[in-house]
Amino acid sequence: MNASTRAPSPPAAAGPRTVLVTGGSRGIGAAAARGAARAGWDVAVNFTRDATAAEAVCADVRAAGRRAVALQADVGDEAQVLAMFARLDAEVAAARLAPLAGLVNNAGIVDLPARVDEMSAARIERMFRINVFGSMWCAREAIRRMSTKHGGAGGSIVNIGSAASRIGSPGQYVDYAASKGAIDVFTLGLGREVATEGVRVNAVRPGIIDTDIHASGGIPDRARQMAPAVPMQRAGSADEVAGAIVWLLSDEASYTTGSVVDVTGGR
Ligand code: NAP
After folding, report:
1. Which residues surround ligand 1 with Cβ inside 6 Å?
2. Which helix (H) or strand (E) holds 174?
3. What is the mean pLDDT of residues 31-39?
4. How many angstroms separate the alpha carbon of residue 158 from the centre of ligand 1?
5. N or C: which end of the chain has fewer CB within 10 A?
6. Ligand 1 atom 12: the closest Cα is on which residue?
7. Which CA distances in Å does 20 have to 107, 143, 204, 232, 247?
8. 149 CA → ligand 1 middle, Å
9. Strand partners for 159
């Protein structure tokens, strides 16, 4: 091997590893948790409301031969994020999970369709608190555990953005699109900031994916309605997004950082 092609920083540690998936109880997060387990990761499944759904994902992880723990926390509350990572540390110390080497910042919300001139301060604050601040707090805690600067063994962070950051979502949820624009820039900056510390940071930007999120945005049928606007003429599945997430987590993506992967059917 030529010296210039040798890895300049250590790859993520060999052996069992844990990935924390925020919002892992449903949709894209649940698919990522199951896909990561099939790829050999232990999984910490974060959720807010639905413990039964999170436990069902944990059962699937265990059926794939890996360990799993469900961790309840609202990622939009810094104190709850800190408590979640403390609980994760305790699970690792007790050998109920492998060391943390991955984070999927997936938890995210939309809101009902509205123009910006109709939006309350509370709505905009909640949007950014969960979608942006939550991702930044979780990434900070993961870096403190995974970066070689902090004595860690390296790792990979995958932020879930949205094609909305390219489209802007006028008349629907510009606040959401703006929050996902912040995720794009956070990914670029953090990826470059920790590039020599064994930690890669990338984003996946899904397009129209068939999950429950559209019902929470007041348009349960949105994935089907939007299909004609997609070059592939169909919505994507959570598993199709999970494929990109699991690849970015893996050592196969060892030279990829600060990047954004669109999973949009061409949109
Ligand atoms: P989803 O089906 O609505 O699932 C959301 C998940 O996030 C649930 O597991 C939920 O847990 C959790 N969650 C919500 N608020 C949370 C909070 N404050 N703290 C912790 N967990 C929280 O959503 P999805 O469609 O899979 O979306 C996942 C990500 O992909 C989001 O970031 C979203 O913006 C992004 N995305 C989705 C699409 C799409 O078309 N579906 C497109 C582009 C981007 P509980 O059920 O326990 O509350």
Report:
1. 22-23, 25-29, 46-50, 74-76, 106-109, 130, 160, 162, 206, 208-209, 211-213, 216
2. helix 174-193
3. 98
4. 14
5. N
6. 23
7. 11, 13, 16, 32, 15
8. 31
9. 105, 203
CA distance 76 to 112: 19
Residue to substitute in 106, 210, 214, 239 for testing ligand 1 pocket (most ligand atoms within 8 angstroms of CB): 106
**Structure pTM?**
0.96
Instruction: Please state, in angstroms and rounded to a whole number, the distance separating the CA atoms of residues 45 and 47.
Output: 7
* Contact residues for 137 (Cβ-Cβ < 8 A; gap 6+): 75, 78, 81, 82
Positive or negative torsion for Cα 7, 256, 75, 140: positive
Residue holding tokens 């703006």? 178
Q: What is the DSSP letter of 2?
A: -
Nearest-atom number in ligand 1 for the CA of 206 is 43
**Atom from ligand 1 closest to the CA of residue 76:** 18
pLDDT at 72 over 60: yes
Q: What is the mean pLDDT of residues 241-260?
A: 98
Query: How far apart are the C-alpha atoms of 45 and 61, rounded to whole Å?
Result: 10
Q: Cβ contacts of residue 93 below 8 Å, gap of 6+?
A: none
Polymer length in residues for the chain: 267
Q: Which superfamily is assigned to 18-263 in CATH? A: NAD(P)-binding Rossmann-like Domain (3.40.50.720)
Residues annotated catalytic, as ranges: 176
Q: Give residue 184's identity as a one-letter amino acid code.
A: D
The pLDDT of residue 14 is 64
Could you identify the atom of ligand 1 that is nearest to the CA of residue 26?
Answer: 9
User: Mean of the pLDDT values across residues 94-103?
Assistant: 98
Res 257: pLDDT: 98
Sketch the domain layout of the chain as residue ranges: 18-263
